[in-house]
Specification:
There is one protein chain. This protein is an alpha/beta fold and about 400 residues long. The protein has 17 helices and 14 strands. The strands form 3 sheets. Strands 2-1-3-4-14 form a 5-stranded mixed beta sheet. A 5-stranded parallel beta sheet has the order 6-5-7-9-8, sandwiched between helices. The protein has a 4-stranded parallel beta sheet with strand order 11-10-12-13, sandwiched between helices. Helix 4 runs parallel beside helix 5 and helix 8 crosses helix 17. It is globular, with a radius of gyration of 21 Å. The structure holds iron/sulfur cluster. Iron/sulfur cluster binds next to helix 6.
Length: about 400
C-alpha cells in the first residue's frame, strides 16, 4: 500500500479538550455495532505488520479489544520500538503515552492518537513554564546541583526533557523506589513531578519522614509555592502539586467500608492514591503488580481494588472462574474519562485516514526534546538494571 506522508504536526499540537465530538450520539451507545467491529477489523487486517496497535490497561473494552498488545505506557512503547517491521503505531491511550512511544520508536514511524481530547489531567498539572519558574526560584535558595529532579513517566515530553537536562531521570510506578533511592544518593534533596502521591508514598517507604517532604503548589501566588524558605531548606523531598483525577477518588472511608462490611476482603491500591489510602490498604503496587497479585492469589480470595475501573472489571472477569472476587474499592466507577475519549469510531477514523495516507492525529516530539528525554530514560534503564534493591 502506498502511503503519502503529511507534514508533521506542529509541536504545539497537544491534546485538545475543545476538539469537536463528531460521533457524540454513537459514543453514548453501550455496544459497538457489529458492522463497526467488522469495519475496524477489516481496516486493521489491511495493514498487517505495518501497523502496531497498542492498548493501555485502562482503555475501554470496546477499544482495547483491537489492540495487538496491552500493557502500561512504557512497556507498550518499548514493544512498539521492538517491532522492526512497523511503519505506523496507533496508541489507544493518552497524549503523553503517544509521546513516549514517539520518543522510543524510529523518528520516521508516525505515532497516532485517535482522539486529540485524550489527555492526562495529571500530566497537565506540570506545565514546563511553571516548573522552570519554580526551579529558578529554588536556585536563589540553593545550589540546584544538589537538587535531583525526577518525573513520573506520566508527564509531558517537555518535563522529561527538563529532568534529562538537569541530571535527573524518569520513573514508573514499578521502579519508583529504585529511582528515588538513587536520586537521594545524588544530592541533598529531590524534586518529584507531577504526582505528589507517588512521590510521597514511595519516599515514605524508603524511610523519609513526612515532615521532610513539602509540596510545591504551582497555583499559589506567593514566590515559593506556598512554602517558606526554611521549609524548603529543611526538606529532602519537594513534591509537585499534582495528582491523578482517577486515583484521588479513593478515600480512607472506602477502605474502612470494606473492613467493616467484608473483613476478609484484601485491599490493594495503586500508589497514585493518597498517602492515607495507601497506609490503610493491605497492598499497594503498580498496575502490573496489582494484576499479578490477583492472578497469583489463592482461589476463593476477595479483592477490593483502588485503580481505574476498566482494569478492575477485566481482572474480575479473568479470575471469576478461579473463584476469586474482585470489586472496585469505591462504590462508583472511577474511570479515566480522558482515555475513554478514544472511541471505536475514533479508531475507525484514524485507520481510514491512514489508509488514505493521512494522519489523524500524529503526535511528534521534536529532536531536541527527544534527545534529552531519551537521556533521562536511558538513565532510568541504567539505574533499574543495576538492581539496587526493589
Ligand atoms: S488514569 Fe490518571 S494518570 Fe492515568 S492517564 Fe488517566 S488521568 Fe492520567
Amino acid at each position: 500500500m502506498a502511503i503519502e506522508f503529511q507534514t508533521k504536526a506542529p509541536m504545539d499540537v497537544r491534546w485538545n479538550p475543545e476538539q469537536p465530538i463528531e460521533d457524540v450520539e454513537e459514543m453514548g451507545k453501550p455496544d459497538t455495532p457489529p458492522e463497526l467491529v467488522e469495519e475496524i477489523s477489516e481496516l486493521r487486517r489491511g495493514f498487517g505488520k505495518d501497523l502496531v496497535l497498542l492498548g493501555h490497561h485502562y482503555q475501554r473494552d470496546d477499544v482495547v479489544r483491537f489492540a495487538d498488545k496491552r500493557g502500561d505506557s512504557l512497556a507498550l512503547s518499548q514493544y512498539a520500538a521492538s517491532m522492526q517491521d512497523a511503519k505506523f503505531v496507533i496508541f489507544l491511550g493518552v497524549h503523553f503515552m503517544a509521546e513516549t512511544a514517539d520518543m522510543l520508536t524510529d523518528p520516521d514511524v508516525p505515532v497516532i492518537l485517535p482522539d486529540m481530547r485524550a489527555g492526562c489531567t495529571m500530566a497537565d498539572m506540570a506545565e514546563i513554564d511553571d516548573i522552570e519558574e519554580a526551579w529558578e526560584k529554588l536556585s536563589e535558595l540553593m545550589d540546584t546541583e544538589t537538587l535531583t529532579p525526577i518525573t513520573y513517566i506520566n508527564s509531558t515530553a517537555e518535563v522529561k526533557e527538563f529532568v534529562g537536562r538537569h541530571g535527573g531521570t524518569i520513573c514508573t510506578s514499578s521502579n519508583a523506589k529504585k529511582i528515588i533511592r538513587w536520586a537521594m544518593e545524588q544530592g541533598e534533596r529531590i524534586m518529584f513531578f507531577p504526582d505528589q502521591h507517588l512521590g510521597r508514598n514511595t519516599s515514605y517507604e524508603l524511610g523519609i519522614p513526612l515532615e521532610k517532604m513539602i509540596v510545591w503548589n504551582w497555583q499559589e501566588e506567593d514566590e515559593l509555592g506556598g512554602n517558606t524558605s526554611d521549609d524548603i531548606r529543611n526538606s529532602r523531598v519537594i513534591l509537585w502539586h499534582g495528582h491523578c483525577s482517577v486515583h484521588q477518588h479513593f478515600t480512607p472511608a472506602h477502605v474502612e467500608h470494606w473492613r467493616n462490611t467484608n473483613p476478609d476482603v484484601n485491599v490493594i491500591v495503586h500508589p497514585e492514591c493518597s498517602f492515607e489510602v495507601v497506609q490503610k490498604a493491605d497492598y499497594n503496587g503498580s498496575t502490573s503488580a496489582i494484576i499479578n497479585t490477583i492472578l497469583d492469589a489463592a482461589p476463593g480470595t476477595k479483592w477490593a481494588v483502588g485503580t481505574e475501573n476498566h482494569l478492575v472489571q477485566r481482572i474480575g472477569n479473568e479470575v471469576r472462574e478461579q473463584g476469586k472476587e474482585v470489586f472496585s474499592l469505591a462504590p462508583y466507577a472511577c474511570l479515566c474519562s480522558t482515555m475513554f475519549r478514544i472511541s471505536p469510531w475514533a479508531l475507525r477514523d484514524s485507520l481510514k485516514a491512514l489508509q488514505e495516507g493521512k494522519f489523524r492525529f500524529r503526535i511528534t516530539v521534536d529532536e531536541e526534546t527527544r534527545k534529552w528525554s531519551n537521556i533521562a530514560l536511558e538513565r532510568m534503564f541504567e539505574i533499574t538494571a543495576k538492581g539496587n534493591g526493589s
